[in-house]
Specification:
The chain has 285 residues and is an all-alpha fold. It has 13 helices and no strands.
Length: 285
């Protein structure tokens, strides 16, 4: 009976229970809406704990940290140029990965274009770095642990975005390679677009990150591969449900990203201390 009821909805379900009420002698009126609601709620799958945590983490603060790192990193790596040029190149550095992945692989709307909050957050980050009489810029250059915190928050948000792109591409094309490619491109696409445009416009010596293995592309590829491997193992090997396999695979990829980010921070901190001991100026954070 329940199996047949699940295929009914709207007027059909109401008519079924109305006929049942007229034919029976029950003293309590039947409620088709309540019964159908109970059937739908009984089929809901409880969201895994990691997924609930990730939903709170992958929010506006992670995008703010990503924009601050992108704008600051572009400014310390390139000489001052026109404001419009700097703002455009900084935006491509921050959001080029999502732009290229959504356009060429996922064929979905670009998230930062349709989100007014994300656009405003980027411009707020640009104003903080460029239009505060260099107060924020110098503070970020001097405070290593502040930049370390921003980097960790940024990497958390980036990793969750890479995993979502990986899952979407894998579901869309039916095998793992597009998923790994989408996750990797989302992590290094901004630098790739930036390097290509710099070659074509002003800086003829700039090279795309796709032509030389850098830390960013290694991190993105490692996270995408970790997610793909863990998701396949949990889904097909351990026979876990789809939501649980997705959530725990994201947790594994996030552990990989945080370990690599922590190793990078420790290495740069030791180099910073060594240069201070030798009386040299601090390296760029």
């Amino acid at each position: 009976m329940l199996a047949s009821v699940r295929h009914l909805s709207g007027p059909s379900l109401s008519l079924l229970f109305r006929n049942a009420c007229t034919s029976c002698s029950c003293s309590v009126a039947c409620a088709p809406a309540d019964i159908s609601k109970t059937l739908v709620e009984s089929e809901k799958v409880e969201e895994p704990l990691p997924e609930r945590l990730f939903r709170k983490l992958n929010a506006l603060p992670t995008w703010l940290a990503h924009c601050v790192r992108g704008v600051y990193g572009y400014r310390i790596s390139r000489p001052p140029q026109g404001q419009l040029y700097n703002a455009t190149m900084s935006l491509l550095t921050c959001a080029g990965g999502g732009l290229s992945t959504n356009t060429f692989i996922l064929h979905t709307p670009i998230s930062w274009i349709r989100s007014q909050k994300m656009i405003m957050t980027y411009f707020a980050s640009w104003l903080l770095i460029h239009k505060t009489r260099d107060v924020v810029y110098r503070t970020l250059g001097k405070q290593f642990w502040l930049m370390a915190l921003i980097q960790i928050v940024d990497h958390i948000g980036e990793c969750l975005s890479w995993c979502e792109a990986n899952r979407t591409a894998t579901d869309k094309y039916g095998h793992l390679f597009p998923g790994v490619l989408a996750g990797t491109l989302m992590g290094c696409g901004g630098g790739a677009i930036f390097g290509f445009l710099e070659q074509r416009t002003r800086d003829k010596t700039a090279r795309s990150v796709l032509s030389q293995p850098t830390w960013a592309i290694k991190l993105a590829f490692g996270a995408a591969s970790s997610y793909a491997g863990l998701h396949t193992l949990l889904l097909h090997g351990a026979r876990w449900s789809g939501p649980h396999a997705h959530a725990w695979a994201k947790l594994g990829a996030l552990c990989f990203v945080l370990s690599m980010s922590g190793h990078d921070l420790v290495t740069r901190y030791r180099a910073r201390r060594a240069q201070r001991a030798e009386g040299q100026p601090n390296p760029k954070p």
